[in-house]
Amino acid sequence: RLRIASQSQKLTVNLDGPHGKLGLNLDAHEYVLLVAGGMGITPMISIFCDLAERKKRGECPNLKKCMLVFSCKTSEQLMWFMDQYRECEKVDGFTVELYATRHKDTESSSGRVHNGRANIENIVSVFGHGGNFVEMSVKASSESKRSSSRTSGVKPENVAVLACGPEPLVNSAHSAAWKAGYSFHKETFLL
Q1: Which of 35, 74, 123, 190 has the most crowded Cβ, counting Cβ within 10 A?
Q2: DSSP output for 78-138
Q3: pTM, whole model, 2 decimals?
C-alpha cells in the first residue's frame, strides 16, 4: 500500500464515525462533572468542549456548572489541552481541576496543577454544592457522610458524573456518584 502512495497514485481513505452514544442526556442535567485519568481525557475533553460550545450558543439552558477533573502522571501531559481549558473556562460555570500524580513533575508555569492524586470521592460528594471547590472539599472531609447535595437544595437527579480512565479512578467516581444519588456514565477502552 505504501508503494502505491509513493508512486503518486491516488490513495483513497474513508473515515467514519463516531459511532458511540452517550448513555446520559446531559441536556437534562444542571450540573455535569467529567472525571478523566490518563488517556481517559480523550472522550472527556471532547464532551467538555462540546458542552461549552453548546452553552455559548444557548443550547444548554439548564446547565449551570460543568467541571473537568483531569489527573495524570506529569504536568506536561496536563498541559496538552491548555488551549481548550482556557477557551471552555470563558463560559460561565465551566471550570477545570488538574492533578499531577508524580510530585517531582508538578512544576507548572501556570500554577494550575495540584500535587498528587485527586480525591475523587470528595470531589464527587461536594459537586453540586455552591462555592469554591477547595473550600468545599476540605469541609466535606471534615463533616460526616450525611453531607450531600440534598442539603444545598440541588436535586441529585440534576447532577451527572461521567468518568473515563484507570479502573480505580472510575470505580471511585461511580461509588461516590451512587452514594449521592447522581446519574453516572463511564467510558471504557478495551485493550
Answers
A1: 35
A2: HGGGHHHHHHHHTSTTEEEEEEES-GGG---TTS-EEES---HHHHHHHBTBSS-HHHHHH
A3: 0.77
